[in-house]
Task: inverse folding
């Protein structure tokens, strides 16, 4: 049961993400008052902030690419669905059920991919810490050492919070990638299944079915009747010709006498 739950959680299902801070420290524990060390510590923390900003950019770029790729595959798969269904209609019931299961799983994982990836763009859930310009205005009278010390404490606080937020976004990206990978696997299975079916399963030969043979029979009778009438008409014409010839011969004989 635990393994099954972990499997579902790897796809972003039944998993509630918490913003767990990576470091457990109290910013008030920082008590250094030497100016050189203060500047050194400030530069070090600034470097950590830059690394986290770069990490955030990488996560968001990969998330955008994953959404674009999933949308493209989703559209192409939907485009060929009518053609695929037309080919599957002649399959047996078992093959039809297998086809529907594989197709449904492919769509499910692509939907999970988009759903998990879009979580990273829900701005309301991700409140990044940042320095406030009000600190400069409100702390104009304090010494350089105290101001540096205050700035270091602010950096210690924001870095811990921002790393926790980036970890959540990275987890969303990982679950989206897992779903995308399984979606591609089931799509590949679907393509192989269709190719194998078209190659090795004998399709029904095409037959021309006559729906109304009675009409054709009546048409044949009609043609036969026309032929008979034509034959009768020819006989009448021949008889008229023969009568005309006989009358002509009789007239000639009378004239000779």
Result:
């Amino acid at each position: 049961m635990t393994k099954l739950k972990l499997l579902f959680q790897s796809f972003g299902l039944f998993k509630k993400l918490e913003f767990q801070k990576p470091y457990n420290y109290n910013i008030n524990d920082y008590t250094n008052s030497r100016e050189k060390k203060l500047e050194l510590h400030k530069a070090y923390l600034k470097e950590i902030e830059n690394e986290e900003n770069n990490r955030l950019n990488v996560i968001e770029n990969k998330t955008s690419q994953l959404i674009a790729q999933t949308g493209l595959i989703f559209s192409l798969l939907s485009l060929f669905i009518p053609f695929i269904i037309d080919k599957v209609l002649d399959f047996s019931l078992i093959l039809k059920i297998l086809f529907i299961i594989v197709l449904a799983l492919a769509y499910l994982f692509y939907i999970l991919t988009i759903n998990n990836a879009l979580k990273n763009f829900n701005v309301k859930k991700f409140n990044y810490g940042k320095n406030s310009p009000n600190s400069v205005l409100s702390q104009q009278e304090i010494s350089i050492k105290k101001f540096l010390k205050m700035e270091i404490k602010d950096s210690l606080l924001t870095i811990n919070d921002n790393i926790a937020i980036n970890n959540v976004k990275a987890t969303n990206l990982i679950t989206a990638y897992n779903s995308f990978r399984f979606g591609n696997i089931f799509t590949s299975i679907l393509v192989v299944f269709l190719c194998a079916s078209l190659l090795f399963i004998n399709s029904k030969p095409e037959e021309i079915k006559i729906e109304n043979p009675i009409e054709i029979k009546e048409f044949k009778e009609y043609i036969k009747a026309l032929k008979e009438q034509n034959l009768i008409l020819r006989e009448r014409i021949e008889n008229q010709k023969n009568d005309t010839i006989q009358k002509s011969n009789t007239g000639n004989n009378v004239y000779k006498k």
Notes: The mean pLDDT is 82. Residues 144-200 form the longest helix (57 residues).
